[in-house]
């Protein structure tokens, strides 16, 4: 059973989800459970219900039964399986996507159409001005507004550090007004109904602001020194570093080359020495890990004197729950087990105590070294952070050490007045004070982000590895609401309030939030708003770990790429520049994002070309308002930045998503030049965007002048967008954009009117017309987008092809065109043509391996640089395409072969045309369908070839099952798949023909021989195995034929074929045996003693299973051997029952002969004695016997062939003397029964 907890299954509302048993589970008792709520019930994540099995055929059959869920409610749901008495042997999650609605009529907004713009709420100003400021998003084509938290912020102003999760930011209420969450909700609803815009907001669960009043009233909600005493060493180190920082700021260590303003590596080396001498050596942090040796030895001595024994095997230290210095103790049971005195005399006890003390000192020494390793790592992290923040060109260059910008970030809050370090140490043991020393939030670079770095076992706070957010408090939820009732209730109220106002939420610090907490909170939100849109940025490269978050939380969209406000990790950092990209890269990057086939987003300010990102901490400017007519310093319109270009891009993005442009292809044309193609698989229209990225400023960096020409297949209908970025001097601190930067834009123009590209030539190759595009004046920052339609003739061919494919699926209705003149073979559905084929014809159409094909002068198709197909028929293609289809692996050699030429199409049609008759008609159908395929662009050929083959294959199977018995037609999918073995193994061919059946036999199939040009019998024969035993003399084996006859022919309803095979072998009866190898009856071997009994068993089953089956006993048999000593020659007919009598009578009388042509020419591995055949019936037991140790005349008849192994001519297992067959007893019983009833 698969465990799919990390696999992603995303479905839309209205889908039906089915659970079916895999092959390994069929026949076992399996039950499926899910927490998806039953109709009319509320969702409870912990409440699972069993699903009932549905039996589509009306009877209990594991092959086709399934459980079903009608998915009508959005969210994340879990399922698991039980198997027998084993619970939860496998399971996973499913996500049902929400449905977003906008406008007064609640029109559905497709999720892939979303264009979101993020707003820092604190830059919006008073609530009554918000509409004027967010109107910029509406006028530039966005349909979603993403707000950072609207709550009251902490003193730092960091937009994700909330002082009160329940209070609206008072800055939104101007003097004289008091806005509430209800007013925000009204504004959001106005945006949704009047502007067709959805609003979402950030939620933060992993921390709160240091200035939050509630966290000081309920310190149990954070990690403090009372509920998390393991943090005591880290807290002591944090306070010591703060005092050291203050002393460095005051210049106390200047003489030791540690000034307030660090300038070079000499200062860094000196800082290392100060840290070790003034901090770590004095703190003696190793004592928190060690044992008090004297106390432990005294306790050990008392236990020895009291003669207390133990059962432990190794010395074990016990962690002090309060994490005090020398607070750890020893498990005395383990000590007594290891250190045992020779006697209880005082001297022996003293000697034992000395050994015990020595061992404790060794343990303490190891713990001392362990803490020193932590100290070394802490020093490295502190020094590295100082280098980055104060010396590195990539850092913020904070300047001298001050109390505002200390030597390193503080890891814990200290809500008391300043005091000496010694006074602070005393507070650590006072519970009423220690509970207020709360750990700040942060993360560890390169660490597993799902791991909580504040819990026992993590030393991140002690080793100073945390990238700390010093204005936040890390929240401590525990495992369930009962562990911290106030925190869970507070955050639940916060979540419900957000869900009541907004259509969705964005999980900030998704992986830093405990998954069970986020699950619980989102469940509360969805209980109020079922169609909740959930966004998150997991910030992790592992797809499996991302899937864990996505599946468990029901995340709708993941944020890819870096948003400016999401790059900030520490609240003290000042403004920083947009990485190193130039203004010329803004529009190309936006184009690249807009061409993605998913929801897209940006941040307010980017489209206005802000020279530096708006600070998530310090920014106190307000966003500009929209004014379509004028442009002042506080207003923007389409002439600002790249707003006009972004409007065109957002409209295009939404149009492409709505019209089904689901296929995306990206190509690198030149350095910095990228082409992105969005393709619609139904209309086959494409939109091609060509853009020149300019990460470095082209004004100061050299770049190539020439761009290689581009070849676009099809007809360029228009230039959707053409944009050129021009820039002059930058204004570094202008939050309203770069007024001297302009973007020249043209929309919906003809190619001849373009200023940056021109059409050079039209090239025809691979049955497609390509437009050669030359780039002129195409410079960094330029964007050009083409709308491309198929060339008119190609459009007609595609439309006609899709029209003919509608018979297989209605999905081809879109884009289909009826022809004026349709090939006659295509005027009727393929199922009508298929109905003319016999099952023997189906063997040709669907199967035939390479050896069978070569008998007719052909062979299976060989894919260059890969492998030949397993079958010449459709199954050979279906098996390969079944592997290509799920992965859309268009780079497969089969797809390459189809794109490069028509060879495979010609093979499929010509192979069938050569057969003539009804099979030839199917070949004509393929030839006509491939005629369309050869006149469409080659890149489309694999897709439509698959559609044609798959449709024809499905039609063939439907026709096959109509020929078969009701047992197959009404059977399960497993029965149907097994029944296909009848078509696979049964075929007709002139080199495989049976001996001639009696001309007096009715319903024998005939055909005109291609070799003799005369009418001949053409009965099907059974191949003994594929691919080695399917052609020539080795095809027809008596034993194999009649073992499989019941399943392949009788149960499938192929009674005439079964009758022909039975009678054909009856005609070859010789010496009371039927042949082991048939070979048209003339090249035969009679060295198989059990084949005749399988033949007789098949006759019995024919009489029993076939209506009026006993009539076969009177059917005429054309015998080939009139006597045991004669060669093959025509004789008179005799009824089958006489042949049966002869076979059984010969065994009763005894059979003994030497094979004809015995010797190496017949079998070069057999000893001479092995050619002697003997068989008979023991008169006392009724069992058959025969053979000798050198022949193998029954089942498992492998003959040894190796002289080196000394087994040549010796059967692998003994096949002589007595052999007991169940079929023999059945035959005796049946013959007696028929005799009793005179039949």
From TrEMBL:
Domain Glycogen debranching enzyme central: 641-912
Membrane spanning residue stretches: none
Family annotation (SUPFAM superfamilies): (Trans)glycosidases, Six-hairpin glycosidases
Any one GO BP annotation for this protein: glycogen catabolic process
MF-aspect GO terms: 4-alpha-glucanotransferase activity; amylo-alpha-1,6-glucosidase activity
Annotated ranges, domain Glycogen debranching enzyme C-terminal: 1012-1216
Residue ranges annotated for the Eukaryotic glycogen debranching enzyme N-terminal domain, each copy included: 17-102
Name the record gives this protein: Amylo-alpha-1, 6-glucosidase, 4-alpha-glucanotransferase
Top-level taxonomy: Eukaryota, Metazoa, Chordata, Craniata, Vertebrata
Gene: LOC116055780
């Amino acid at each position: 059973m698969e465990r799919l907890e990390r696999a992603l299954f995303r479905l839309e509302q209205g889908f039906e989800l089915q659970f079916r048993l895999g092959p390994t589970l069929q026949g076992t008792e399996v039950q499926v459970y899910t927490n998806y709520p039953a109709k009319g019930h509320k969702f409870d994540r912990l409440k699972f219900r069993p699903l009932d099995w549905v039996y589509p055929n009306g009877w209990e059959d594991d092959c086709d039964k399934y459980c079903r869920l009608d998915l009508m409610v959005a969210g994340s749901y879990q399922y698991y399986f039980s198997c027998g008495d084993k619970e939860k042997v496998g399971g996973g999650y499913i996500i049902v996507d929400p449905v977003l609605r906008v406008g007064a009529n609640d029109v559905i907004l497709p999720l892939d159409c979303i264009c979101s713009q993020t707003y820092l709420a604190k830059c919006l100003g008073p609530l009554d001005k918000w509409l004027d400021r967010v109107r910029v998003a509406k006028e530039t084509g966005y349909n979603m507004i993403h707000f950072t938290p609207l709550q009251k912020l902490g003193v730092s102003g960091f937009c994700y550090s909330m002082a009160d999760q329940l209070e609206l930011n008072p800055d939104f209420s101007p003097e004289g007004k008091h806005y509430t969450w209800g007013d925000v909700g009204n504004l959001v609803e106005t945006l949704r109904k009047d502007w067709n815009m959805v609003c979402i907001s950030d939620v933060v669960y992993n921390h709160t602001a240091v200035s939050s009043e509630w966290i000081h009233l309920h310190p149990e909600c954070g990690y403090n020194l009372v509920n998390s005493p393991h943090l005591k060493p880290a807290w002591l180190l944090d306070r010591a570093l703060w005092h050291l920082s203050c002393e460095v700021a005051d210049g106390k260590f200047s003489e030791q080359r540690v000034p307030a303003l660090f300038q070079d590596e000499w200062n860094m080396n000196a800082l290392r020495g100060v840290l070790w001498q003034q901090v770590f050596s004095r703190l003696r942090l190793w004592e928190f890990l060690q044992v008090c040796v004297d106390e432990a030895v005294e306790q050990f001595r008392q236990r020895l004197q009291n003669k207390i024994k133990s059962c432990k095997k190794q010395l074990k230290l016990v962690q002090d729950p309060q994490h005090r210095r020398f607070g750890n103790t020893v498990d005395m049971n383990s000590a007594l087990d290891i250190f045992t005195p020779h006697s209880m005399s005082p001297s022996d006890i003293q000697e034992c105590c000395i050994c015990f003390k020595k061992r404790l000192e060794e343990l303490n020494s190891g713990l001392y070294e362990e803490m020193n390793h932590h100290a070394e790592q802490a020093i490295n992290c502190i020094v590295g952070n100082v280098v980055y923040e104060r010396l590195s060109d990539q850092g913020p260059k904070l300047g001298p050490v001050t109390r505002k910008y200390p030597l390193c970030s503080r890891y814990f809050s200290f809500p008391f007045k300043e005091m000496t370090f010694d006074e602070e140490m005393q507070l650590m043991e006072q519970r009423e004070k220690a509970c207020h020393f709360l750990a700040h939030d942060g993360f560890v670079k390169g660490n597993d982000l799902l791991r909580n770095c504040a819990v026992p076992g993590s030393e991140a706070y002690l080793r100073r590895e945390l990238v700390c957010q010093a204005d936040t408090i890390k929240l401590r939820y525990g495992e369930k609401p009962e562990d911290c009732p106030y925190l869970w209730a507070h955050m639940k109220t916060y979540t419900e309030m957000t869900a009541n106002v907004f259509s969705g939420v964005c999980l900030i610090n998704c992986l830093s939030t405990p998954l069970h907490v986020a699950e619980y909170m989102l469940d509360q939100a969805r209980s109020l708003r079922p169609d909740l849109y959930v966004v998150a940025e997991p910030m992790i490269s592992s797809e499996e770990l991302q899937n864990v978050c996505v599946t468990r939380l029901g995340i709708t969209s993941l944020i890819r790429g870096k948003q400016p406000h999401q790059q900030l990790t520490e609240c003290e950092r000042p403004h920083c520049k947009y990485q190193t990209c130039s203004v010329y890269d803004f529009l190309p990057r936006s184009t690249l994002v807009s061409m993605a086939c998913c929801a897209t987003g940006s941040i307010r300010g980017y489209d206005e070309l802000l020279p530096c990102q708006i600070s998530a901490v310090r920014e106190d400017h307000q966003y500009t308002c929209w004014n379509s007519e004028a442009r002042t310093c506080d207003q923007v319109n389409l002439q600002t930045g790249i707003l006009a270009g972004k409007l065109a891009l957002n409209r295009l993005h939404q149009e492409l998503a709505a019209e089904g442009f689901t296929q995306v292809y990206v190509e690198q044309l030149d350095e910095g030049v990228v082409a992105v193609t969005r393709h619609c698989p139904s209309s086959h229209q494409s939109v091609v965007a060509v853009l020149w990225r300019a990460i470095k400023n082209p004004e100061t960096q050299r770049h190539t002048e020439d761009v290689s020409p581009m070849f676009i297949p099809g007809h360029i209908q228009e230039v959707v967008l053409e944009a050129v970025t021009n820039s002059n001097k930058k204004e570094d601190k202008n939050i309203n954009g770069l007024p001297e930067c302009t973007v020249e834009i043209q929309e919906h123009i003809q190619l001849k009117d373009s200023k940056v590209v021109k059409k050079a030539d039209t090239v025809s190759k691979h049955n497609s017309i390509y437009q050669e595009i030359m780039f002129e004046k195409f410079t960094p920052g330029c964007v050009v987008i083409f709308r491309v339609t198929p060339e008119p003739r190609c459009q007609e061919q595609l439309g006609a092809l899709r029209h003919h494919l509608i018979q297989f699926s209605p999905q081809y209705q879109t884009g289909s065109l009826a022809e004026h003149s349709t090939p006659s073979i295509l005027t009727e559905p393929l199922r009508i043509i298929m109905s003319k084929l016999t099952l023997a014809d189906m063997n040709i159409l669907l199967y035939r391996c390479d050896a069978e094909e070569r008998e007719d002068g052909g062979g299976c198709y060989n894919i260059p640089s890969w492998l030949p197909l397993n079958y010449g028929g459709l199954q050979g293609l279906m098996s390969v395409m079944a592997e290509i289809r799920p992965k859309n692996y268009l780079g497969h050699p089969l797809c390459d072969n189809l794109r490069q030429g028509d060879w495979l199409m010609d093979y499929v049609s010509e192979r069938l045309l050569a057969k003539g008759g009804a099979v030839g008609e199917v070949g004509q159908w393929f030839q006509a369908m491939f005629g369309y395929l050869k006149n469409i662009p080659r890149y489309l050929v694999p897709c439509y070839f698959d559609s044609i083959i798959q449709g024809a294959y499905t039609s063939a199977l439907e026709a096959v099952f109509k020929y078969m018995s009701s047992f197959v037609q009404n059977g399960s999918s497993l029965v149907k798949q097994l029944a296909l073995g009848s078509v696979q193994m049964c075929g007709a061919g002139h080199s495989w023909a049976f001996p001639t059946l009696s001309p007096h036999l009715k319903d024998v199939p005939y055909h005109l021989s291609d070799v003799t040009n005369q009418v001949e019998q053409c009965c099907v024969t059974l191949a003994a195995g594929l691919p080695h035993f399917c052609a020539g003399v080795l095809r027809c084996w008596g034993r194999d034929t009649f073992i499989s006859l019941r399943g392949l022919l009788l149960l499938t309803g192929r009674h005439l074929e079964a009758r022909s095979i039975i009678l054909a072998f009856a005609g070859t009866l010789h010496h009371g045996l039927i042949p082991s190898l048939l070979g048209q009856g003339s090249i035969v071997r009679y060295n198989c003693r059990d084949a005749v009994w399988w033949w007789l068993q098949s006759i019995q089953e024919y009489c029993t299973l076939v209506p009026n089956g006993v009539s076969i006993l009177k059917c005429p048999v054309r015998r080939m051997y009139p006597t045991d000593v004669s060669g093959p020659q025509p004789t008179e007919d005799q009824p089958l029952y006489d042949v049966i009598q002869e076979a059984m009578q010969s065994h009763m009388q005894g059979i003994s002969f030497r094979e004809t042509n015995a010797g190496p020419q017949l079998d070069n591995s057999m000893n001479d004695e092995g050619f002697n055949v003997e068989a008979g019936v023991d008169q006392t037991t009724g069992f058959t016997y025969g053979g000798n140790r050198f022949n193998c005349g029954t089942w498992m008849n492998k003959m040894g062939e190796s002289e080196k192994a000394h087994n040549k001519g010796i059967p692998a297992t003994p096949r002589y003397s007595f052999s007991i067959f169940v079929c023999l007893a059945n035959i005796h019983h049946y013959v007696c029964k028929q005799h009793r009833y005179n039949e």
